[in-house]
Each structure stands twice: as C-alpha cells, then as structure tokens.
UniProtKB/TrEMBL annotation:
One of its GO terms (biological process) is lipoprotein localization to outer membrane. This is ABC transporter ATP-binding protein. GO terms for cellular component: membrane protein complex; plasma membrane. Keywords: ATP-binding, Cell inner membrane, Cell membrane, Membrane, Nucleotide-binding, Transport. The keyword Magnesium does not apply. It holds the Pfam family ABC_tran. PANTHER family: IMPORT ATP-BINDING PROTEIN, LIPOPROTEIN-RELEASING SYSTEM ATP-BINDING PROTEIN LOLD. GO terms for molecular function: ATP binding; ATP hydrolysis activity; transmembrane transporter activity. Belongs to the ABC transporter superfamily. Macrolide exporter (TC 3.A.1.122) family. Residues 6-227 form the ABC transporter domain.
Amino acid sequence: MSEPVLELRGIVREYRSGPNVLKVLEGADLVLNKGELVGLVGPSGSGKSTLLHTAGLLERAEGGEVLLDGESVLKLPDGVRTRLRREKLGFVYQFHHLLPEFNARDNVAMPLMVNGVKRRIARQKADVLLAEMGLESRADHQPGQLSGGEQQRVAIARALVNDPKLVIADEPTGNLDPTTTDRVFASLIRIARSEGAAVLVATHNMALTRHMDRVLTLQDGKLTTFTG
C-alpha cells in the first residue's frame, strides 16, 4: 500500500482573545491516500475551513502533527512551507479568485510560471487542462467574459496545473446553481482521478457526497465517519 499523501495526527487548533480560548480542533485525525476523494461536512462554524487551512499549510496547529507525502511539515520554516504549497498543493475556493486582467489560459498557467516554467510550456499545459474541462474555445477569454461555472472550471484547472499531490477545495460549488454545480464537480472528479491526486472537499451540498469515496464530519473538534 502506498504511503498516504496527507496525515493529520491529533491536530489541536485554538484561537485566543485575551484570557479567552476558543478550541476549534481538539485531536483531529485524518489519513488521505493517493487518488482518494474525501468529503468534509459539518455545521457552519464547526472548523472545516480551519482544518483545510491547517492541512494546506496556511495555518499552524498548536498541537499534533501534519505529514505531507510522508514528511512532517508542521514545524518547518515559513519559506519551506510556501515552497511545498506551490509544488505539492492545489487550492479551489468558493469564489474563483481569477486575475481579471489575464485570460483563462494565462490564469491557469500562472502557478507554473511562478515556479519558473517557461511561458510557452506553461501555456501549452494550460491549454490541455482547459480542453479537458471543455473550455478550449474559451482560453482567450478574460474572467469577466466567462460564466460563473466556466470561471470555476478555470480555477480547478489552475489548481491542478502543477500536478499537485493534494487538492483542497473549500465549498468549490457553493456559489453555483445546481446544474452548474454538477458540471463543475464532475470536472473536478474526472481530472483529479486521472491525475491521481488526493482530494479533500468541504461542502454543505449533501448531494455531492454521493460522489465521494468517503465522507467525514467535523463536530466538537474531531473527525468522524459521516453516517447520514
């Protein structure tokens, strides 16, 4: 069996305001394997985004351990964590955060160019991903010329362009109508499966969970198997 892409071991996350301490994660555990699609559900305010930010090296936990590709990363310097995010992680959010002055092709190619890949090569790979998303005819369009669903598919392509080991999606379809939601989520699943990435998706849309390999719920600071 291959080594897990992501492991969270006993994660503790808390926020302090003066003498008050709000504990959000209290011993959260997670193992995510290559090619696995895992859903994360829970009520608003339960800490789903906090858990995703911790897994994605955007926040540091106060306790526990985070392993990415078998490497303990919780206590690494910020510069190293930033490099790992660029090289091994892809992020998809509820709002696409595309750069309005660039067309779809260059929005997708941008992470590769930031990593030093030549523009011509980066744009070629962007075109391949856009075609897989059914957006080959929209590559030269700027975000303002695209529909909401098209913009989100561009954002997914951008998240996958650097061949991430782990894709983290925080309510990736929360801003879309049901028909567009199904199309966008199907694109995420198809590309993630073909690329072999591990995918962790936080969602309020329970209809989407039928597409997951498994679903976890976050409650009282811990992860448990969702039973419906």
